[in-house]
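Protocol step 4 of 5: obtain the predicted structure for the target chain.
Materials: sequence only (see below). No template structures provided, no constraints applied. The aim of this step is simply to have a reference model before the mutagenesis design in step 5. Sequence pasted as it appears in the construct record:
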Amino acid sequence: MNQTNPMNSCLSLQIDDGIAIITIDVKGETMNTLKDGFADEARDIFSRVKSDSTIKGAVVISGKPDSFIAGADINMISDVQSAEEASDLSRLGHVNMNAIEHCGKPVVAAIHGPCLGGGYELALACHARIVSDDKKTILGLPEVMLGLLPGGGGTQRLPRLIGVAKALDLMLTGRQVKALKAYKMGMVDEIVPQPILLQTAIEKVKGLLNGKKNRPRKLTLQDRLLEKNPVGLSLVFSQALKTVLSKTKGNYPAPIRIIECVKTGLKQGLEKGCALEAKRFGELAVSPESRQLIGIFQASNDLKKESFVEDEQVTARSIKNLGILGGGLMGAGIGFVSLDRADCDVRVKDLNQEGINAARKHIYDQYAKKTKRKSMTRSQANQQMARFSGSTSYDGFAKADLVIEAVFESLDLKRQMVQDIEKNCRRDTIFATNTSSLLVTDIAKGAARPGNVIGMHYFSPVEKMPLLEIIVHEGTDDCVTASAVELGRKQGKTVIVVKDGAGFYVNRILGPYMNEATWLTQEGIPFDQIDKAMLQWGFPVGPIALLDEVGVDVAYKTEANLIHAYGERMKSSGAGEKMIADGRLGKKVKKGIYLYGGKSKEKKIDPEIYKLLDITPNKTMPPEQIAERCILPLVNEAVRCLEEGVIRCARDGDIGAIFGIGFAPFRGGPFRYIDALGADQIVQKLQNLEAKFGERFKPAESLLKKAKTGEKYYS
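Step 4 output (structure tokens):
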């Protein structure tokens, strides 16, 4: 066996019976990423594969236990200073991918663990791809999530492998797929158990040497109609562009550039497609949108390393048995993410069997969706469902490590539940409240062990919303905080820890935003015009539609708490009282501001709402002005939260706003938004509005200081 393994090298090569085994192992990292210097090593390695007559073919495999290549090192991209510099990175990638594809000998990628971005582009350049059937194995080209496009030939090779429509769907959404799904889509050639991955890859090399071909792509009738004639292909591209513009409102340039690169490559050839890919990659890498999205990605990664406790000796408890009080949608959603992602046994308590059955059905339906998408088998789903149980009493709760309550917003009820858990569970059982409006401090009052009480504020629907806001009161034990954080991460959540206070952080900044929308309606601005302006600005849903989604009664109760804590600046126009009196609670009762129950997919405002609120919707306002009116109170309140220590830093505030309320990601969050415009400009706008509308636009003190000094929240 001939082996080459230079000191500090990312790549090593050993020859076994004429097959080169190329192992990727980035030293000092838990996952492989394509770092600076990787390209030079890859060029040398594949130059040897090509020129060495003793080498008949090669297998590329990872030296990490659970990672192939997770993508390019994001710091390498964020450090570039010009579009040309970024384009050079892409061109270098093309040279290396071409070296693999054209080395004259079969090269097979043996994939176990994440194979994403540049990692999957490397696999695409190989002549075959074998994957492990392990749940850790995922594949995709998620660059669009960072405001980029695949820069290593991905926009060219993936459409040729699996077809244009499927390739565009993957690249435009950034969707990552598991091994079985990837196999069915044609992204890989074989799927095998991980212990025989390497041997299967070696046999695949030998098979290719002997003239065996990869399984052919199966063309459906739709594939033939849409992709095998110019008219059909043109339809695919036009529909993709239409969908992109509908979803992004033109705020994100990367999806449009991806479509352009794919189209160019298929019409003018791979070489010209790659040339355009490199050019567009460079332009996108230095765009404001990509810079902000990369900043969010880096901030999210930093958050994953945070302990959120001062004592570094404190360790999180292992949460294996989870109790949930309340079988409604929130409780069921928490139950599902705990079963599916956090590896917990889940027991739900509800007042009656109907509530337990409803929770069980909700969880079952979520697994049914997964089996339908082929991301898991029915047998695996049944095994997970077997870990769910329910009770109308506290029977079975004695072994609970943590109990989450998700019931009606009643302080007396929640306090009673704390006492019940203290009586029926272990002394160290953690009690987490999912309250969205009550103070955790108040819920913990009267508890025998208040240090075990913490807030875990989930957002609905729990299965989809990425944020978990953990609220600590002054007496919360550090171990309890660490344990809640660890559970949240295992549930797949991005976690921020905030100080107890009315509205916590997310609902506190959301209040002024939604309130200002109601003030605009009082000036005669139509409801739907406000929503359209905020969608154009970058929110996934407008404030009026969100009010219907949340529930007018819930919003009204939250507003009362915020006014009590922070004064008149938290007051809305007062429309909520009239709507509640008229039974207009929103979507949940099919009666709110929008009409419900019609056949049309386009949502329309109920004209009766204007009569009820005595509004004449006869005014217009530029979308930019509407957005400014709604956004400025939000960012101003975020600054106050930082002043008061509700959030620990600007980064946490930006992540909370983006993942909690859908603040436009390409704008970076409230604090990066202030930095981009300049604190002096924000203050000037606020003061102009304060002169016209009063206290709700009064600038926060620290914002005034930033305006004077020119200091930014991010260096």
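Step 4 remarks: The longest helix spans residues 623-643. The chain has a mean pLDDT of 95.
Proceed to step 5.
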